Amino acid sequence: MSVNKDIIIALDEGTTNAKAVAFDSNGQVVVSFSRALEIQTPREGWVEQSADLLLAASLDVIARAVTAVGAERVAALAISNQRETVVGWYRATGEPIAPALSWQCSRTAAFCHALRENGHEPQIKAVTGLPVAPLFSASKMRWLLENTVDGFARAGRGEICLGTVDSWLLWQLTQGESFYCDYTNAARTQLMSLHTADWDTDMLALFGIPREALPTIKPSSGLFGTTSGGGTIPDGIPVMAMIGDSHAALFAHGLGAEGCVKATYGTGSSVMAPVSSAECNVTALATTIAWHDGESLVYGLEGNIPHTGDAVAWMADSTGLSDLPPAELTQALSTLPRSVDSTLGVFFVPALTGMGAPWWDENARGLIHGLSRGVKRAHLIRAALESITYQIADVIAAMRIHQGFTLNALMVDGAPTKNDWLMQYQADLLGCPVMRSDVAELSATGAALLARKGLMNLNVAQLRQYLPEHMTFTPDIARHVRLQQRWQAWQHAVVLARR
Description:
This protein is of the alpha+beta class. It has 15 helices and 23 strands. The strands form 7 sheets. It has a 7-stranded mixed β-sheet with strand order 17-18-16-15-21-22-23, with helices on both faces. Helix 12 packs across helix 13 (420-430). The termini are far apart. 54% of the residues are buried. Pfam families: FGGY_C (PF02782), FGGY_N (PF00370).
C-alpha cells in the first residue's frame, strides 16, 4: 500500500447478499455496498442459487465500491465467501454447468448415508477432519458430475472446473487466468487431507472427483491473481486474500487468541475455536483449517448449524411477522421476546433440512413442541430466538470434550447479534461473557486484514491495531443456573425431532 493506493476492497459473498466494503489505511470502513441474493428450493431438501447471479451481484458491488473511492486508490481486493457451496463450470467458456449447490442443500443425503453404511466415515473423518454430511462440498461435486452429460469423463480431461465460491469468483475476475482456492475453503470440501494440506488421493477416488477439475490450494493471504477484462472493474488490481467467511470473522475477532471462541449468527451459524493441531477426538465436530496467513497454518475446531437466523425468518414468515417493513420487523424481533416471561413451555427445533453439529442427522425434521392454548406469536418468536442459543450451547458442550479447549469469551457477529435480548440470553445460558462486534462487515474485515498483511508484509501482532472493538454482555450467574433446566428440556425436544 502507498499514500496514493490506500484502499482495500473486501467482497463478502454470503448466502443472502453480496457486500463490498472499502477499508482505508487505518482499517476503517469508507463505503459499503450490498446486493440481495435469491435462494431457490426446487424440491424438498434442495437448496440452490444461480451461479451467474452470484457473480453478477459480486461484480456489481465491487464496481460500485471502486467507483465510490476512485480506481486509482484501490491497492487490492480481498474475498470472503459462503463456504461449502459448489459451482461447476466449463473451462472453455466459463459458463456454469448447473445452479450453485448451496451449503444448505441436502440432496446428497442418500449418498452420504451409503458412505456411513459402508463404513467409510472413520477414514473420511481421520483424513479430512469432517464427519460425513451433505453440508460438505465433495458429495455435491459428485452430484453435479453425475447430472452432467459425460460429467466424470469431461472433468477428468479438465474440461469441467469444480470449485467453491471463492475459486468461481476468482476465475471470473481474472478471466480464467487464476484457478485457485485457499486452504480454508479446500478444508471444507472433504477432499483435502488436513495432514498433507493437499487434495487427498483416497478421498478423490471415494467421491469420484478428478484432480484435474479442482483448483490449486494457496494460503489465505497472498497474491491470487489480478483483475482482467471485468469491464466495470479496472484491470490489474491484485486479489490479495481469499478465505471462508466464518474463518474471516474469527480472524477479525481476535487473530486466533486462545480462549476466544467465535460464533457467527447468520442464516446458519458457525461456532469455531482456534486449536493447535489437526488431532480431534470429538466425532461430533469438524476439525478444519482456520486459516493460513502466509506464514503459518492455524487449525480450527468447528460446529456448523444450518438453521439459526433462518429459523427466526421461518417463524416470522409462519406467524405473519415478516409482512412488516424491515425496520419494524427488526424492532418486533427485539421487543416480542421481552414482552413475555417465557415461551410457556414451547420449544422450536428448526431441523428444516436436518440437523448439523453436534447431531449430524439429515433425517431430523423441525418441530414445535409444547404448544398450549395460551401460546401466542410472542411465545413462538421467543422460542425461535431461544433455539439459536441452545444450538450454540450444544456445540460448545461438544467442544469442551476436546483436550486443550478453553472458553474465555464467546465472540459473536452477524445480523441477529444486534438483538440485545438474544445476546444476554446467550451469555446467561453459557455462563461466560458474550463479546459482540458491532462491525457489520466482520467477515470482510478479516479478509481485508489478511490482504493488508500480504501487501504490507506485516506480522499478526502488527495487525492488532486494526481490530474492531467489542461490546460485552456479562452473564447473570443465578440465571445461568436456572437456564440449565431449560437447556435440558430443549435436548429432550431434539430427541423428538430426530425420531
